[in-house]
Amino acid sequence: MTALAVDIRREGLRRALQAGAPVYLLLAALLVAIAVADPGFFEPDRLLAFAKRSAPLVILAAGQYLVIVSGGYDLSVGSLVTVGVVVAAETFNEFPGAPWPAVVALLLAGGALVGLANGLIVAVLRVPSFIATLGMMLILEGAVFYWTQGSPHGSLPEDFRALGRGNAVGSLPWAVVICLAVGTATVLLMRAAFGRTLLATGDNERAAALAGVRVARIRLAVFTLSGLAAAIAAVLVGGFSGISAQAGRGDEFEAITAVVLGGAALGGGAGSVVAAMAGAFSLQALFTLLNLHGVSGALESTVQGLIVIAAVWLGAVNWSRVRRRPATTTPRGEA
Amino acid sequence: MTEVAVRTADRRQARVPGLTDPVVMVYLALAGVTALGFITVEARGGDFLTLTNVVGILHNSVVLGLVALGQTAAILTGSLDLSVAYLISICTLVAAETMNGQDSRVLPAMLVVLGMSATVGLINGIVITKLQVNAFIATLGVAFILRGYIEDNYTGPAGKVPVSFQHLGYDRIGPIPVSAFVLAGATVALWLVLRRTRLGYHMYAVGGDEQIARLSGVRTHRVKIAAHVLCSLSAGVAGLILASRLGAGAPWAGTEARYDLESIAAVVLGGTVLAGGRGGVAGTLGGVLILAVLDSVFNQLGVDPFFKNVVRGAVIIAAVALYARRGQRAGDNT
Predict the structure, then answer these.
(1) Are B145 and A306 in contact (CB under 8 A)?
(2) ipTM, 2 decimals?
(3) Contact between residue A252 and residue A77 where contact means Cβ atoms under 8 Å apart
(4) Phi-psi group of A90: left, alpha or beta (phi > 0 → left; psi -120 to 50 → alpha; rest → beta)
(5) pLDDT, tens digit, for every residue of B49-79?
(6) DSSP element (H, E) containing A172
(7) Where found, per UniProt (chain B) (predicted)?
């Protein structure tokens, strides 16, 4: 197990690809199925539109990946997206002429602050992350509904919404640019020493601490980054779909599902961030495919549930073969 | 050597429940919350510890109590169940539709509902143990499957429960609601399973360390599957009581009150460790009562229902932080 860090440095790319192999197959299969059902899907414009729709979930998955791989959960991101959208709306309502960069900065700072609070609760008060972020979710959701009574006021100005639905250059949407930037940053982060300490912490917190990792700082960092990712997603969601008190409902489960689809082990210590983001794209591709086939919105979740279970099952099978684990070590780290 | 000596000393002390015993702490917290609620409500000229109010608190804790009891079984084995909310919804719908307002079909309907919930628990357990899918994802997946079925087939309340069955939800024996006896019965039954049967000991063993339990000859898969069947069965009973109270089945019966996350919160609030292996039904019951007392206080004070969630979240975090301080030496949990 201690060889993990060394291995990752040595054969990072190969291992990363292998680790997520099932999700790339899944994504490819879904894209082929979409192409069969709707040949026009691969025109650049529509492909970019698909990427734009996926961007918030991909960003959430990147943030959630950092938390999961270091051994935790972040259940508060969905409610944080909602809070972000509502705060943006109320801010513009209160200060109609507010410059959009200031509001974006406010949201990012707020997201990071909530994430930091999560991190402090987990690292200092030693509350399990599942409960800490569940409590945070109740607090944030309650606060939003208490504040707006379920129907947020105000509207988002065009220049703010452009981030979520406008184009940066030519037909390249801002959302895709931001998504790429977040993805690149996360990959670089995971390749740096920080990434290796994350994996080590998730793999065995005690061993990592004894080896000199400052576990508390790691926790603060990952939850802050996850909160930041949720705030970025909130900016995109607000621009793309507008204001709602339900904006981010259920997003936390989708992000966790995406990360797990990407082959990351819940409980930490293994997984690739690129595969996690591919998992998010796969989920979005699945929704698109179901829509194309006219599966009613209702049955959509049934199919989603079946595919998620099947994919994780198959992923577990492949994973153990790739790593050639001795038969005595079963996957650890549940709940 | 000295460490062993200290540990045995610890264990000897632990036999006499002290102030740091998790269950004692839970009930101290319950007493504290009740006292605080009593003072605030009385200070505003209300009456808190009236018979009606106490009975109301009991009445309101039955459904969450049943779900949380089942969830305790799952969590003790190091698992958890996110599918209970949708399962409860389906149970109310199936119960009401099977009964269809006829007295003669009450018993068959109850059997159908219990059989169905046991099957869902079996599926949860098999997916987790045999397919090696993480419990979080497995039960979330099953929840999605159930949700799709509900949303595809129902848009509103369906079926009808005969008046005779509604007695289960609303009648009282003396001042105590019948449904509270159901909760008490379930609590005693689960306590007996956990503390007096081989299955119960094995559940603690599996939750403590699955690997060691397996190497010691425990059939860990069967134990986990049994825990999930128990969990889903309790959700089924909760669904029956909800159906009897609503008079019909409702697609939102389990999801609106968020029984999935609320039950996990109640279990952890009751001092059971989320990673498994430590805890029990007495604490869970205390955790459920704390949430119910809080609710009652807020209702009496006329607090905005949305603001209640804010306080609930804070209380849950604070309580678990307190337990974590106590258990710091006992080991870490994620």
Answers:
(1) yes
(2) 0.84
(3) yes
(4) alpha
(5) 888 888 989 998 999 999 999 999 999 999 9
(6) strand A172-173
(7) Cell membrane
Residue pair A261/A308 in contact (Cβ under 8 Å)? The answer is: yes
Backbone torsions φ then ψ of B158, nearest 5 degrees: -145, 155
How many whole angstroms separate alpha carbon B167 and alpha carbon B93?
18
The DSSP-derived string for B174-191 is TTEEHHHHHHHHHHHHHH
Over the stretch A22-73, which tens digit does the pLDDT of each residue have? 788 889 999 999 989 888 888 888 889 899 999 999 999 999 999 999 889 9
Alpha-carbon span A185 to A191, nearest angstrom: 10
The enclosing H or E element of A169 equals strand A167-169
From the list A132, A205, A335, which residue is nearest B136 (CB)?
A335
- What is the Cα–Cα distance from A333 to B276, expressed in whole angstroms? 11
Distance CA A69, CA A209 (A): 16
Provide the domain limits for residue A162.
17-323
How many interface pairs between A and B have CB atoms less than 8 angstroms apart? 180
Q: How many structural domains does chain A have? A: 1
Q: What is the pTM of this model?
A: 0.87
Give the start-to-end residue ranges of the domains of chain B: 21-326
**Residue B94 contacts residue B113 (beta carbons within 8 Å):** yes
CA B91 to chain CA centroid, Å, is: 16
Q: For an interface test with A, give the residue of B214, B309, B311 to mutate (most A CBs within 10 A).
A: B309
Between strands A172-173 and A167-169, the pairing is antiparallel
**CATH number (domain holding residue A267):** 1.10.3470
Tell me, yes or no, whether A329 lies in a domain.
no
| Residue A169, beta-bridge partner list | A172
